[in-house]
Amino acid sequence: MPTILIVDDDRSMVRLLELALAPYRTIYAPDGLSALSQVDTAQPDLVMLDLMLPDSDGLVLIAAIRRASEVPIIVLSARDDEVDRALARRLGAADFIRKPFRVMNLRTRVQAALNAARRSKEQNV
To answer: What class does CATH assign to 3-124?
Structure first.
């Protein structure tokens, strides 16, 4: 079962995402430093990232994660500025979902990102 790293400092949002993403295995990081550590040690199959974190801007974190890993990143944020969307994509995010979100839409986009990553790995083997 794929592992999804949820990077968000709002515990109620994390709990909601854990429920919405069942049956995937989820792990959690409340800030950017913890997220980078988890990407390195747990090697998740997907990162779900809020842009507003207590210790770093999510856009900066996307770039840092991308330097360390090719893991797909889905931004899940209340910030819905066109510039944020464009920068997130340019920095390496696979998708951008605005909060609040619909669970079925979230699940569909997570599965699409995981499928694309799997296909990419298969082509590179």
So the answer is: alpha beta
The pTM for the full model equals 0.95
| Pair 17, 49: CB distance under 8 Å | no
Return phi, psi of residue 35, to 5°: -65, -45
List, as one string, the DSSP characters of 74-110.
Answer: EEEES---HHHHHHHHHHT-SEEEESS--HHHHHHHH
pLDDT, one tens digit per residue, over 86-120 is 999 999 999 999 999 999 999 999 999 999 999 98
* Domain spans of the chain, in order of start: 3-124
Is residue 8 within 8 A of residue 14, CB to CB? The reply is yes
